[in-house]
Prior knowledge:
Blueprint: H1 2-31
Amino acid sequence: MASFNRTALALFLALCFTSMNAGRAARHLLQLPPLPSMPNLPKPAALPPLPTIPATLPQPTLPTLPTTQPAALPKPTLPPLPSFPSLPTVPKVTLPPLPSMPSIPNIPTTIPSIPFLSPPPAGN
């Protein structure tokens, strides 16, 4: 816990010093003379027109699919699955009924007056 406190203190001090340096840098920038204005740059020449797209694009030629069926593959035979031993039956467990919840006491909403904090009675 102590190391966390030391780390938090070190982080807080680092942030404080950083903000002091940032404030000093901002004040220094505000005291500088104004920067010269931006020179006017020449405007670029007109761009060449875009090439035209033909109305119909060439269609690719698709290869023909073979019409003969390949030779049928032999059906694989799988070994039988191993049998697992039967599991013993687990006895049924019945839980006792849950106890009823105790009632929540009422919390007073008014603050009682404390005699020694009240002002003294006015005297005539």
